[in-house]
Amino acid sequence: MPNSDYSPAAYLEQLHAKQARLESLLHEFNAPAPQVFASAEQNFRLRAEFRLWREEGQRHYAMMTPGDKRTPILIERFPIASTLINQLMPRLKEAWSTSTALSERLFQVEFLTTLSGEALITLCYHRPLDEAWHAAATALAQDLNVSIIGRSRGKRTVIGRDYVVEKLEVAGRVFTYRQPEGAFTQPNGAVNTHMLNWAYEALGAQTDDLLELYCGNGNFTLPLSTRVRKVLATEISKSSVNAALANLADNQIENIELVRLSAEELTQALNKVREFRRLANIDLDSYQFGTVFVDPPRAGMDPDTCELVRRFPRILYISCNPDTLAENIRQLSDTHKITKTALFDQFPWTDHMESGVLLERK
């Protein structure tokens, strides 16, 4: 939604337009009106990535004009980014401006921050990193109170930790999350907290088990595990699986089994089409699944996965693409009906929206 007006009134107008679009897409399914969770208008984004652009002998933060790699937009402040990112940006720029060891062939900078106040900065280079860089980066990390990662031609040098730790409160309990550099995390922490609490309430207290597909670093897995007997969660990304396993241990949660499988592979396993060594120590027949939770990529669920989730009395679905959400619901609508709907404005000032639905067997 391109717009040069970033006033509160303009934000509400955009949010209402998103709500209308979601309601229109779900109208044919007689969905209830969505519960709407707004975002802050500024300082909501916890991560940011900038190219660096040389002009008049200085490197500047920049983003490229869409479709035009030759026309940079030079940036001094980035209002949609977290307050911490905006505090770090000028201090980092001053550091590279006065240090050849830090600035030589530096071409990209990435920030990852948390609501809990942690930060990790990734510096990307077109050269090998030497001892002079390591000494300068170590001093900078101490000065900024951050972790720093240097990336150079497939090599990675970590000063501090290669992850940040986020703390999110769900239903009065604080969960901690390791969020590794380069792995997917929800960019809008405050709205993510709304998503977690909505999913927790939508699921309700159950006496049976939960199957989760696309579990990532365990963002939803941790709080939802407190609502069921036990959880079987799957994720294909190795870095996300490692983070999720660490998060289970850090939060002392013991009723979750995590398996590195794609949704398609798990479908094959549950249908007994294939056996997987990664499931060798898991008795699938011991689970009494009452709910399946899915948070798929923008393409949505493939038809076979849709047929798999149809088996469950409850389908809790978080979507980053309302069009593929509607397509998936259309495939499920002969057996399930929508009983709860939500809109989460993860990405203010854009067309993108996150939504949630609870489908229950008719």
Automatic annotation (TrEMBL):
InterPro entries in the cross-refs: MeTrfase_TrmA_AS, MeTrfase_TrmA_CS, SAM-dependent_MTases_sf, TrmA_MeTrfase, U5_MeTrfase_fam
The residues responsible for catalysis, as annotated, are 320, 354
Record PROSITE patterns: SAM_MT_RNA_M5U, TRMA_1, TRMA_2
Any one Gene Ontology cellular component term annotated for this protein: cytosol
EC number of the protein: 2.1.1.35
Keywords of the record: Methyltransferase, S-adenosyl-L-methionine, Transferase, tRNA processing
Q: Where does S-adenosyl-L-methionine bind?
A: 186, 214, 219, 235, 295
GO biological process, any: tRNA methylation
Please give the Gene Ontology molecular function terms for this protein. Answer: rRNA binding; tRNA (uracil(54)-C5)-methyltransferase activity, S-adenosyl methionine-dependent; tRNA binding
Catalytic reactions on record: uridine(341) in tmRNA + S-adenosyl-L-methionine = 5-methyluridine(341) in tmRNA + S-adenosyl-L-homocysteine + H(+); uridine(54) in tRNA + S-adenosyl-L-methionine = 5-methyluridine(54) in tRNA + S-adenosyl-L-homocysteine + H(+)
Tell me the NCBIfam families matching this sequence.
trmA_only (TIGR02143)
User: Could you tell me which PANTHER family the record lists for this protein?
Assistant: TRNA/TMRNA (URACIL-C(5))-METHYLTRANSFERASE (PTHR47790), TRNA_TMRNA (URACIL-C(5))-METHYLTRANSFERASE (PTHR47790:SF2)
Q: What does this protein do?
A: Dual-specificity methyltransferase that catalyzes the formation of 5-methyluridine at position 54 (m5U54) in all tRNAs, and that of position 341 (m5U341) in tmRNA (transfer-mRNA).
Q: Which family does it belong to?
A: Belongs to the class I-like SAM-binding methyltransferase superfamily. RNA M5U methyltransferase family. TrmA subfamily.
- UniProt-recorded name of the protein: tRNA/tmRNA (uracil-C(5))-methyltransferase
